[in-house]
């Protein structure tokens, strides 16, 4: 039996193999006043096949019960506690063979938090143009993070490198497109840049792209990029810089294992409205092995430096190891150990966490 596929074509952070093409500095930001024209042309009427409408409701729940130890630092979240990391409730409606819509709510409750966080994770209309080809309008998954979670396969333990470090948003409002041709998959998102949690408009749209190449059935090589202001220049805030991010990833997914790694480099991600340059970079490597149809071992290591210019001593190392038990298609249960080491100018914080992580899907 192969590894559990965490998401389907419409699932929360998984979709058909996505990719984009990045052109670095040649990509221009799109003024918001021209975006409706682009969308109207993209949604030109087409003949729809007469397929009966259908509605599906599904849910995914991520829960962990763990003990957190922050070393010499005393905090209120160190006692054994339960976290409701995510509760995704998804409604999919198919109008016909070409048109569909999805709405997903996202609920989070972390230890010692009150009240819970509730977001509209997805709300989009989709026009399909054949296998792996579609246009989505609204709040939809972004180009890079979607595939990041798919290839790693253990989203319920933690988000991937880009999402975990907040170097990108997993969903955003705008137009999202994917096109497959041969071994290549192109994906792009023209979005607000603010993400799904606090929607707002900047002065121009942001652009994210991904290009994926599958030279073999199980291997994917991908590059991508992001350019924009992340809506941080909303209102009367001055724009000092444009945020940029470049990504590369290589991953292999087999019947009994996964292995992969990715790298990013970013310019001025947090300094769009602040003077002075600052760069960020990081990498992640992961592997898993299916020992039996029900048991698997997995591990992952991240290394990030989030202030190469202003505070070059700032860095973080993240490591996770675990064993997973999958008794049926609805339940995944893992015993997990995590270690995070954070270093700054005169501060060194090492935290450890151990416990049980669970994914329920139905």
UniProtKB/TrEMBL annotation:
Protein name stated in the entry: Uncharacterized protein
Origin organism of this chain? Dyella ginsengisoli
Q: Which Gene3D superfamilies match?
A: Porin (2.40.160.10)
Q: Which SUPFAM superfamilies does this one have?
A: Porins
User: Which domain of life does the protein's organism represent?
Assistant: Bacteria
